[in-house]
Amino acid sequence: APCPQWPYCRKRCSYCNFNTYVVPAVDEAAVRSCLVREAQTLLRLSQVHSVTSVFFGGGTPSLASPGTIAAVLEAVAGAAHLPAGAEVTLEANPSSTSASALDGFRAAGVNRLSIGIQVRGALPAAAAAAPRGPIVTVLPPQSLDDAELRMLGREHTAAEALKAVEAARGLFPGRTSIDLLFGLPGQSRDAWAQGLEATLRVCDDHISLYQLTLERGTALAAQVRGGALPAPPQDLLADMYQTARNVLVAAGFRHYEVSNFARKGALSTHNLSYWQAEQYIGVGPGAHGRFVLRAEGGCGREARVQTLEPVAWMREVQSQGHGTRSRAVLSPLEQLEELLTLGLRTDEGITHKRWGHFSPQLSLQAVFGEPGEARALQQEGWLVLDNGGLRCTWAGLAVLDSLLPDLLWQLQRV
User: Distances from the Cα of 166 to the Cαs of 90, 156, 279, 391, in angstroms?
Assistant: First the structure.
């Protein structure tokens, strides 16, 4: 699963601490050439035979031209088998998603779209009546409350966002995911509930639910720390999450991962590859990857991180074919720790077969079925270990972060 990163944005959001850059001009031809070359190099090193998905992240990859997206996909298809039905997702901002641009991305090979918007409460009638279709990011506040959009540093208005969603749905019907951000400074329980109801009127079959994290060094965190904006209390955050789960499940969505809900089988193929500990190749500034370097005779899974700063990354790609800044072979224990941490995020959990792929000598039962922390968590109703494998209960998924330290400690002891 290749993950090309476009690191540029037109504006930095107030809550963002991603590896993004706002520059006066981008030499797109140079960036495109380097993305293509690095993708070819890393795919050759991995010797993967078939690609299941491609995810263009960022930054704001919709600021790139469709020609750049097409060039990267052609490079992937030239180095490995890219099936006709492979999931190809592009993250986008409403301000860079005109109907003509979206049409160009679709022609380039994109078949799944992720658009970031902001809504709260009732949507305009035109939006509620819009045809169904693609992948939308909806952050809660009033659909016409542009003040909260400004607080988050978003460069589009709510009306522009809804217009972009409608255009996207016409071009990518049935391929829409909505990202819901909750826990905004000053956000009330009622506003969140209204946002959920509004979302259900316009959403398709995939919704992601994220609690806003106030990251050190961001403008929004500084405002909260300085008292200019109120921090939401923890009990309110927990209530918002639980409310959303109940509403979405009642609306026919499967809670298939801690933050993700899908109906009609519309699970994210690409994200599942992370949670199931499959190989993935990070391409572009700051991208992360996990794969085996079979071309160099490797048999161990490597963790790789590409150079963060775009200009330095391009120099490295031009000189050596890739811009890998750090690489380390993961130990068997480190691989199992990743499998445990990621796999328990899903409602399926970790199957015996998947665990056996990483631990042929030591079964799930041998590690977590004996007296210890895992058994106590099972008795308390947080965890299940049975013929299907190891997984969280409905209650356990909501508090997974608090369960993992005990489980990791038991794994390390064994």
Answer: 16, 15, 35, 38
Tell me which H or E stretch contains 201. Answer: helix 189-202
Side chain identity, residue 210: Y
CB neighbours of 94 closer than 8 A, spacing ≥ 6? 115, 116, 117, 156, 160, 161, 163, 164, 165
Q: Give one word for 83, left, alpha or beta, with left for phi > 0 and alpha for psi -120 to 50.
A: beta
Nearest to 99 by CA among 46, 154, 165: 165
Per-residue model confidence as pLDDT tens digits over 148-180? 566 666 655 666 767 777 777 788 887 877 777
CA angle 30, 32, 35 (to 5 degrees): 110
Tokens of 44: 């050759």
As separate numbers, helices (DSSP H) first and strands (DSSP E) second, the chain gives 17, 16
Reading the block at residue 230, the tokens are 């109120």
96 DSSP assignment: G
**Structural contact between residues 199 and 158, judged by C-beta atoms closer than 8 angstroms:** no
pLDDT of residue 369: 95
- Is the pLDDT at 54 greater than 90? The verdict is yes
pLDDT digits (tens, 9 = 90+) for 346-364: 999 999 999 999 999 999 9
Q: Identify whether the C-beta of residue 223 lies closer than 8 Å to the C-beta of residue 23.
A: no
Give the Cα-Cα-Cα angle 294, 298, 302 (nearest 5 degrees): 95
Cα–Cα distance, 289 to 302 (Å, whole number) = 8
Domains and CATH numbers, the chain: 2-272 (3.20.20.70), 332-412 (1.10.10)
Mean pLDDT of the chain: 87
> How large is the greatest C-alpha to C-alpha distance in the chain, in angstroms?
61
Helix axes 332-343, 400-413, angle to 10 degrees: 150
pLDDT at 120: 43
Say whether pLDDT at 387 is over 90: yes
Q: Where are the alpha helices (DSSP H) in 80-145?
A: 99-108, 125-128
Burial category of 383 from C-beta neighbours within 10 Å (exposed 0-12, middle 13-18, buried 19 and up): buried
Which range, of 137-151, 285-299, 374-388, averages the lowest pLDDT?
137-151
